[in-house]
Amino acid sequence: MEYRHLGKSGLKVPVLSFGTGTFGGKGEFFSAWGSTDVAEARKLIDICIDAGVNMFDSADIYSAGAAESVLGEAIKGRPRDQLIISTKATFRSGEGPNDVGSSRHHLVQAVDAALKRLGTDYIDLFQLHGFDASTPVEETLSTLDDLVRAGKLRYVGASNFSGWHLMKSLAVAERHGYARYVAHQAYYSLVGRDYEWELMPLAQDQGVGAVVWSPLGWGRLTGKIRRGQPLPANSRLHATADMGPPVPDELLFRVVDALEKIGAETGKTVPQVALNWLLQRPTVSSVVVGARDEAQLRQNLGAVGWNLTPAQVAELDAASTTTRAYPYWHQQGFLERNPNPV
Question: pLDDT tens, 34-79?
Fold first, then answer.
């Protein structure tokens, strides 16, 4: 397994990490993802560790905290210093007026609750699940810095921030000497390349590593969706399509056609090719893969240990290119002054 530095930090993370969104299966939304219990989670974690994947990602809202609890039970007895545990908070986690956001009150409460569910005394990477415009950035960052100094958090990051959210946070952290975000967990896939427009150049400039979520385009690049065929009966898109990123049908089928062609050339599956493409993109530190069962996990693990050729990468780039929003389409016309990240 290849390891990369997480942004401009000294922490090295595996290029594939395992997401626990399928753990627990509580609620209509997350039950559509999966309902992995502790026994099955242990098996999946064994497979990950055998393959060199020692980073496990969760969040307090995954199955209302059950995903963290299942993960905590599944890693019991393993050497804690050999694992990298990441989790997230910010979204609503209760009915109270302060059970949401990035206030000092909520973050301290959320971290303590996550530590208890995970059965550990520190979190390797704690990420804000989204930006909270109702709380001063200084309050949020000073709280995270206190939690780092208290030993409860090792590194901090963000998720689903816009460019100005991330840059303002980095500037405030630098001004006050607070712990800075070293990771940005962002949606990025062959059918969702908006990350490249502003967040990727920012990440390269500021040393923020991308931890990619939903790398298969919200379940669209599994190889089961084909042009002219109905959605498979067991696809989670039946229940969750409207809750995830929209993808025009023609873009999806154009990308899938290219993936199938290159899959035939390489002897790899559609998802393996899609994941390998991501692993060659600038600023990507780790790609979060999930799995309902061992077969899915082993297939995802097959995305490493080989590389697409430059010609194959270019073919996928061409198939997945869309018109950028302003001012990014304008900037693309002046690459001499605005070169693409490398």
Answer: 789 999 999 999 999 999 999 999 999 999 999 999 999 999 999 9
CA 177, distance to chain mean position in Å, is 27
* Domains parsed from the chain with CATH numbers: 3-334 (3.20.20.100)
Name the pTM for this structure: 0.94
Identity at 8, one-letter amino acid code: K
Distances (CA, A) of 161 to 62, 170, 191, 232: 19, 12, 19, 33
CA 279/CA 273 separation, integer angstroms? 10
Per-residue pLDDT tens over the stretch 129-138: 999 999 999 9
Q: Report the C-alpha gap between 89 and 101 in whole angstroms.
A: 8
Pairing of strands 12-14, 3-5: antiparallel
Distance (Å, rounded) from C-alpha 213 to C-alpha 32?
17
Q: Of 3, 62, 178, 195, which one is the catalytic site residue? A: 62
62 is catalytic: yes
How far apart CA 249 and CA 237 sit, in angstroms, is 13
For residue 338, what is the DSSP state? Answer: S
Burial of residue 129 (number of CB atoms within 10 Å: 0-12, 13-18, 19+): buried
